[in-house]
Design brief:
6 helices; Rossmann fold; 181 residues; six-stranded mixed sheet; alpha/beta
């Protein structure tokens, strides 16, 4: 089956190793959770077609899953080329992955400049009020620091907010790049 789309957006999903980037993508594409997801080596990419309300044509999202390990930093820069949007992901149970979002922002903006992006706190299924690591104020400050259009808390395991995350980014990219006045 071939799809003809007028709107094509390459997006990169970035963040530290083991924050759940690959699992988020797998949940989005195939509604499944891989309990033993392998680490991404370099990058992988996937394509998803979607129809949004009030958008006259299908949208093609080409989602690039970039390896989070530091030693892939020099290779990753090649994979950013042409990206129209970014998803910054951190693990809601790991403070370091949250703090490293600013490093990811620096890497992305050095190559792409400022592009529409969304901030994601993954693994919400592991959170309860007693072990919450981040205040709303900290999250909002990080959202502002990366100029994120939205913030989502997701569970790649159970699918919480995964569809909304990608639909929202697709709508924002359409509004930013292609919406006819």
């Amino acid at each position: 089956m071939t799809h003809s789309t007028k709107y094509f957006y390459k997006i990169c999903i970035v963040g530290d190793s083991e924050v759940g980037k690959t699992s988020i993508i797998q949940q989005y594409l195939s509604k499944r959770f891989l309990t033993n997801a392998e680490r991404t080596i370099g990058s992988n990419f996937f394509v998803k077609y979607l129809q949004l309300p009030e958008v006259p044509h299908l949208i093609t999202l080409q989602v690039w899953d970039l390896a989070g390990q530091y030693h892939f930093k020099w290779v990753r820069r090649l994979f950013y080329k042409g990206a129209k949007g970014i998803i910054y992901v951190f693990d809601l149970m790991r403070k370091k992955s949250f703090n490293d979002i600013l490093k990811w922002k620096g890497e992305v903006e050095k190559i792409l400049g400022i592009v529409p992006n969304i901030l994601v706190g993954n693994k919400v299924d592991l959170i309860n009020p007693e072990n919450k690591l981040f205040s709303d104020e900290e999250i909002n400050k990080m959202k502002d620091n990366v100029s994120a259009l939205h913030y989502f808390e997701t569970s790649a395991k159970f699918g919480n907010n995964i569809e909304q995350l990608f639909s929202t980014l697709a709508q924002e990219l359409y509004n930013h790049y292609d919406k006819e006045d």
